[in-house]
Amino acid sequence: MSATAAIGPMIEPAVATARTVVFTKTLRDSRRSLLGWTVGITVAAAAYASFYPQMAANGAAQAENLPEGLRDALNMNDISSAAGYLGSTVFGLIVPLLAMFFGAAVGARVSAADEESGTLDLLLAHPLTRTSLIAERFAALIAAATGIGVVVLLTMLAIRSSADLTTVGVGQFAAQCVHLVLLTVCFGALATTIGAVTGHRATVFALTAVVGVSTWAAHSFADTIGLGWTAYLSPFHYYIDSEPLRNGISVSGAAALAAASLILVAAGTYRFNQRDLG
């Protein structure tokens, strides 16, 4: 028996164990920040959702005082309905922007945090490839985003009756939270890619924030300034424009967000494998 044949069966379990450890250790080491993000996003969602009864009574009159262009941009033309209110404020502005920053924070840790601190070489000295490192940590990001989506969904269902949100069905809330998870993962993929290319957390935060705010603005104000086509370049378009709170999951929107995430991570992984990390 050759030395390679003898060593091969010993290496494969070690590689599989290293991959599992990366995934679980990422979630374990980040548990406090993940808990903080989950609580923060959920509390913000619940707090603003609870204002709906007051907005149903007075919101339409208040919205009429806004300029028509701003009202259209912020999707506040139907703020007196539960789906309209949630779609314009809770899930149209507050929660997705928080999810964007969460994706940036977690995505920055996929590779950039270790590279910047000088511990990446030590980590890669284990039986773990660069591709596996990105894949396992990005999988942890997906798991964390899914956890936030589930908690937000359960919270919305818990306050659904007391906040007079019963006109939005359980399935519609679930669909919106699926879209929220996909949006979070998309921005996490963007942050992962920027980190894999640059190796600097500050750059990850800055560029992800610039792209996020710019694409939100493109989605919200493109029609107002006569550049409606730019909305299709924004992940927020595929996240909310199909109105999941009324129509359920948009297969095309969900597919677009998932495809964008996969393309970004694949591109970042390719560049990460080509770079000299020394």
From TrEMBL:
The chain crosses the membrane at residues 34-52, 82-102, 138-161, 173-197, 204-229, 249-270. InterPro entries: TAT_signal. This is ABC transporter permease. It comes from Nocardia rhizosphaerihabitans. Keywords: Membrane, Transmembrane, Transmembrane helix.
